[in-house]
Hints:
Layout lengths: L3 E4 L2 E4 L2 E2 H8 L3 E5 H13 L6 E6 L6 H8 L4 E4 L2 H9 L7 E3 L6 H10 L3 E4 L2 H14 L3 E8 L21 E2 L3 H10 L3 E7 L10 H19 L6 E3 L16 H12 L5 E4 L3 H4 L3 E12 L4 E5 L8 H5 L5 E3 L9 E7 L8 E9 L6 E4 L21 E5 L2 E6 L4 H6 L14 H6 L1
Parallel strand pairs: 4-20, 5-6, 5-13, 6-7, 7-8, 8-9, 9-10, 9-11, 11-12, 12-13, 15-17
Antiparallel strand pairs: 1-2, 2-3, 4-14, 14-15, 14-19, 16-19, 17-18, 20-21
Helix pairs in contact: 5-6, 8-9
Amino acid sequence: xxxxxxxxxxxxAEDVPLTRIAEEVGTPVYVYSTATLERHYxxxxxxxxxxxxxVFYAVKANSNIAVIxxxxxxxxxxxxxxxxELRRALAAGVPPQKIVFSGVGKTREELAYALxxxxxxxxxxxxxxxxxxxxxxxxxxxxxxxxxxxxPDVDAKTHAKISxxxxxNKFGIDIDRAVxxxxxxxxxxxxxxxxxxxHIGSQLTDLDPYRAAFTRLVALVGELRAAGIDIKRLDLxxxxxxxxxxxxxxxxxxxxxxxxxxxxxxDVELFFEPGRMIAGNAGILLSKVLFEKHxxxxxxxxxxxxxxxxxxxxxxDGHHGLKPVKxxxxxxxxxxxxxxxxxxxxGDTFAKDRLLPRFVDGELVAFTSAGAYGAVMASTYxxxxxxxxxxxxxxxxxxxxxxxxxEEILGAERFPDWQTDDGGGRMAxxxx
Length: 432
Ligand code: LLP
């Protein structure tokens, strides 16, 4: 459920008409709904009521500090994968004791920073990382509480690029080797292994892969305890899918019921790292139709948004709904169209053969389900400034990241000295 609905023939974000945001902020623009973020977080967290469970919002899905703060104010912790995300979580007011640090390759500097700020747990993904963390913690004279991420070798049955739980994926430590690695971790002076972690993939629409993975993790916890390693927590990752195109992913309640059934008796604290499930349907990308173009064989709708603003269709064949902001009349003529951006490559196609009413130039449209992995994956390709982000709450809205300016883009670049006068570079060579 989200809070983007038609009212009196116009699409609204909560109580704000999108036409107003387009007029005042311009397009393209990402628009997020506070009520939807809050609802999704609450539904997820409430599903585990009565269990010792903590939710660490996967910041990578949407890392705007105002979005993180919206969730932190409800009690969410943060799952981060870089020093940058860690800094965002702290800036948004997430206490260090509610932050876990995942990621397949952390640098010495990142590990040092995480130890300095005293986060709850570092999720280690390789033996070399274990050694490095032990060394860094030793230099600081501290002991790092860690999770070891295991790879349970389960097919998440999702898009190959976002599948992480098979042996051939780069993530975690093979489950068959986990006991040895935990033993080794336990022997290191500055490491205290307490958690088994796993994340098998993203946009899962079926509970079966979770069941398979969780069952293996439960067996592993048994083996570890038998080996004298005191496992206190199980981090089950994120991955719950959302409906982009009529999918019916399991509701948090069904997911929680599975967790209860499979790991309920284990006497561990449970950690979850949902990202998309919380932010995905809480955001839209508002864009303007520049032109309609009718080729011999196809109808093209050319938008002012492009693949650099929303990369999911190009990268994962991701589907995003497209809603005209002005509600189509009942007698509108819906015909197939290719929805494209202005970037100079054919991959800059948001959808093919999508049934859409006829647009007039300048009409507004909204890509739905764009709150997760939208703005965070944007780039300035084609020197297109990063688009602004807006957060709506009731009848108010605020720009939570202004549109990047050309001055900011160009101002960040430098000529090398051989191209400038004083460096005796190109200018001098040209004049001499
Ligand atoms: N925990 C870990 C360790 C992860 O790697 C991820 C996502 C999550 C939690 C959150 O997963 P979620 O609940 O959002 O599915 N850019 C891709 C998705 C990449 C997901 C990467 N890891 C997309 O646009 O579909």
